[in-house]
Structure formats: structure tokens, C-alpha cells
Amino acid sequence: MTTIAASAPPLASLTIMLRALKLPTISRHADEIARLAEREGWTFERYLHHLVELESLERRRRRLERYLKESELPRDKTLATLQRARLPTKVLKQLPSLCEGGFVERGDNLLAFGLPGRGKTHLVCAIGHELIQRGYRVLFTATYALVQRLLSAKRDLRLEKELAILDGFDAVILDDIGYVQQNRDEMEVLFTFLAERYERRSVIITSNLVFSEWDRIFKDPMTTAAAIDRIVHHSVILEMTGTSIRVEHAHSERAAQGPAADLPTTTTPAAPTLTAKGIPTATATQTKTKNRTQSNDEADGAM
User: What SS3 class is residue 110?
Assistant: First the structure.
């Protein structure tokens, strides 16, 4: 290569060397920018700076394109398509700083709680897209899919390798953790994943279940407590309240079509409350209902 470059005309030689140095954008534009620089009377430093800037911008574009592809984020769930008017006021105020990625730099977690249809997934995906634009690697996955991925790796004796691959992502979005009902092996790999990322890498979680109900996920009380402790220690908690977006959309479609069968109402349920330790629990309404049911049961038993 050295012999060819030395014997070739200057421009051809430069092209060969730039390709060898893996500077394709500079190679592609060097001649064009040289003519522009000569015409405009640029200094050599300005010419070189312009070429390097083009190379840097192209590399960034390709890198973000690669990050977006590997993230598996839904392409339509972005900040531009997010219905901000539906967001709770507190969440709306937190959104800009979350998109900047400071919590990722600190290795903090982000937790979005709320009943189905409140926009949790769209919100965290929108944040994920913004994080990618700021150079962070993000992975979006349904919780059950991640659990099966880890379980398969464990069976093949490559769990550590799989965890190392996942560790390359600055933030992993676990969607719908509340829907996972694991056996012991599945619960253990999920706990291992959360423990491995503790205080180092961010986990973004959406859940229909408040923490007081996470024993459905981890089964064992001690494991549940240990998992919650690691997740909550450094975290931002978002409470998604309001009505179901999907039910409202269905109502709108039915209204446009004319009179039809009744659809479920869109009353707003009480939001998950927080304990003194900052851990969401069952709502006061749910607690009263539970107590009322127990009282009725006791009365029936007495009869």
C-alpha cells in the first residue's frame, strides 16, 4: 500500500491513505472542499477543520442509526408523537431533564407506574429515543422476553456473557414487569440482571403493579424486598394517572360511527400513593374496599 501511495499522483495517494485510515467521508469530499477552499481563500486550518467536521458528523449519524436499530424501540413512540397534554403535571415538569440523560450518567433507575392505557410505554420510549440522540445506548424489551433470553443463556452456561452484552447498554427498558409471573429459575435470572446493574447502569421499568404487589413477580418475600431495595435506592418514580388512552380512542371511533353498544367507562382511578419510604402501595380506595369486603365476610360467617 505504501509503495502504491508513494507512486500515485498526490490526490490519488491521499485518497488511498484516507481509506486506509478509515476516513471515508474526508476521502469522498477532499477534492470538492479543496476547490471550495481555493475559491474562497480559506486557510489550511479552516480547510482541514471543515473536512474533519464532515467526518465527525457522518460518524455520529451512522452511530445513532446503529443505536436506534439495535435499541428495538418502536419507531412511532417518540417525543414528537407523545400527547403531552395527557401527562400529569409533575411528570411533564420532569420530562425535559429525563430526556437530557442525567439519571443515566448517575446509573439511576426510572420507574413508571400506572394502570393499563395510561401511556407508560409511550413515555419511556420517547425518553429512550431522546437518550439515543444524546449518544446513549438503549435497549427496549418486554420483561418476559428478557427473562426468556437470560434463562436460555443460563441453560447454555453463557449467562455471564449475556449479562456482559446487556451491560453494554446505558439503559435497558423493561416494559410491563407486572405481567411476568415467573417460576423460581425465571425469577432468579431477573433478580441477577437487576443486581448486576445496581448503581452502575440504568433500568427503566413500566409496571401496572405497585411495589407492594411485587411478590406476585418474585414470589419469595426476601427476594422481592431485595429487588425493590436495589431498584428504589437510586431512582426517579413517575406516577401515570388519568384515563385510559385506548378506551377513549375506542369511544371516539364509536362516536364517529354512530350509536353502538356501550363501552367501558373512562373514570379516573386513584393514583398509587407513596409510603414514607417512597415505595408505592395500594391506594386508600383499594384499602377501604378490602376492609369493607373483609367486614362483610366476617358478618356472613357470623350468620
Answer: strand
161 and 65 in one domain?
Answer: no
d(CA 26, CA 150): 42
**Residue 151 shares a structural domain with residue 251:** yes
* Interval 47-71: pLDDT, tens: 999 999 999 999 999 999 999 999 9
Q: How many CB atoms lie within 10 A of CB 1?
A: 9
Q: How many distinct structural domains can be found in the chain?
A: 2
Radius of gyration of the chain (CA): 27
What amino acid occupies position 237? I
Q: Is 224 domain-assigned?
A: yes
Task: Calculate mean pLDDT across residues 38-47.
Answer: 92
279, three cell numbers: 415505595
With respect to residue 301, please indicate whether it lies within any of the assigned structural domains: no
Give the domain range for residue 106.
72-292
Please name which of 262, 242, 234, 287 lies closest in space to residue 119, comparing C-alpha atoms. 242
> Could you tell me if residue 299 is inside a domain?
no
- Identify the CA nearest to 174 among candidates 134, 211, 207: 207
On whether both 77 and 51 belong to a single domain, the answer is no
Give kind and range of the element (H or E) at residue 112: strand 109-113
